[in-house]
Amino acid sequence: MTTNGGFEPVFCTVVPPHVLDRLARHDDPALSGPARRTLVRDSELRGRRRVTTEFGLAPAPRAKAPSDQPLRTVYDAGHGTALPGTEVRGEGDDPGRDATVNRAYSGLGATFELFLTAYGRHSIDGDGLPLDATVHYDEDYNNAFWNGEQMVFGDGDGEIFLDFTIPIDVIGHELTHGVTQYTANLTYYGQPGALNESMSDVFGALIKQYTLGQTAAEADWLIGAGLLAPGVTGKALRSMKEPGSAYDDDILGKDPQPATMDDYVRTGRDNGGVHINSGIPNHAFYLAATALGGHAWERAGRIWFDVLTGGELPDRALFTDFAALTVKAARERFGDGGDEFRAVAKAWEQVGVRIP
Predict the structure, then answer these.
(1) Which has fewest Cβ within 10 Å: 55, 276, 290, 347?
(2) What distance lies between CA 108 and its chain's CA centroid?
(3) What whole-number distance in Å separates Cα of residue 217 and Cα of residue 81?
(4) Residue whose C-alpha is closest to residue 174's, from 223, 240, 227
(5) CA-to-CA separations, 174 to 18, 133, 169, 292, in angstroms, rounded
(6) Are 314 and 322 in contact, with CB atoms under 8 Å apart?
(7) Is 88 helix (H, G, I), strand (E, B) or coil?
(8) What is the rounded CA–CA span in Å between residue 148 and residue 49?
């Protein structure tokens, strides 16, 4: 593994820090307490990830799965923080009584299946990497994350967030951080960091659509639908169709994602706004996919996958770099002047990203 272009090694969570920051300032300790503990825990884990990477403390290599089958193991942390926890379901085991365990197991499988069936990729590293996940992590933990080695899910506080295994796109989102780690390894800061987050939203959405058999027109294009508790005024964490519209809540505030470069947010927080400005490439993908119609993983998804894994995308890529490579990939895979080329080029134009 690398140090991501000289920046902090990637520790990727699905709930943006700005959401937890706002919750942590709330007067009600039932809301602020879990958010504060989650922020502290995330900070500790981020530091541990840095030390593990920089000092070469990665775990010993594990046995690889057969190339066409996943090798899943789900562990239960028992509301503690020691990873991975107690093994509760292995590959091929029958479902148990714990719905969280079953959802995690299914989500790992759905992610494996999409990447294998649609793109011929054998697990997230392309070489049959075993897929491990830990559930019931910590007390009222308001997040899910990929730590460079495995997936981890909190149960949520029940007030703002529910169980993080409920949305299958959250599982796909975090595992796609692993795909990015093993391919373009996009620096987790500024525009390359926003692209890193966007890749996870794109393929998280495609995994949900693939599982449901939805076309681009049928999909809701929401990330994290079903995660927000019933009392929250919102639909999801993010919307690729309408960035900035996922929630507008007295407690959470308003979704800050921009849809175009006109509203690009310049900030030093959240690693330069990686969870905020990802709305722009997210929206470009939505526009390209819906313009093409049909199943989004077949053409738009194929183009995005080609760029992510093709070896030409630099780890510090800007939006313009990525856009140019998607246009090139559309031309090379589907032909110059075809529907795919036109849809991709127009999508970037609509979000205000100029292709050099």
Answers:
(1) 55
(2) 13
(3) 41
(4) 223
(5) 18, 11, 8, 26
(6) no
(7) strand
(8) 8
What are the tens digits of pLDDT across the range 297-356? 999 999 999 999 999 999 999 999 999 999 999 999 999 878 999 999 999 999 999 997
Which is catalytic among the residues 149, 174, 197, 340? 174
Task: Look at the block and give the residue holding tokens 């692209």.
Answer: 195
149 is catalytic: no
CB-count burial class (<10 Å; 0-12, 13-18, 19+) for 56: exposed
Q: What is the DSSP letter of 73?
A: E
DSSP 317: -
Cβ burial 210-248 (10 Å sphere, 16+ → b, else e): bbeebebeebbbbbbbebbeeebebbbbbbbbbbbbbbe
Identity at 344, one-letter amino acid code? V
User: What CA–CA distances, in Å, run from 241 to 230, 276, 297?
Assistant: 22, 15, 16
Q: Is the pLDDT of residue 253 over 80?
A: yes
How crowded is residue 333: how many other Cβ atoms within 10 Å of its Cβ?
Answer: 14
pLDDT of 44 reads 83
Token digits for 108? 């790992």
Which of these is catalytic: 136, 173, 275, 295? Answer: 275
pLDDT in tens, 3-38: 333 334 467 889 998 999 999 999 999 999 999 999
Residue 126 pLDDT greater than 80, yes or no: yes
Catalytic site includes residue 159: no
Closest to 263 in 3D by CA, of 247, 245, 248? 245
Nearest-5° Cα angle at 240, 238 to 246? 35
> CB-based contacts of 175: which residues, under 8 Å, 6+ apart?
108, 111, 124, 131, 146, 151
Kindly indicate the confidence band of residue 202, based on its pLDDT and cuts at 50, 70 and 90. Answer: very high
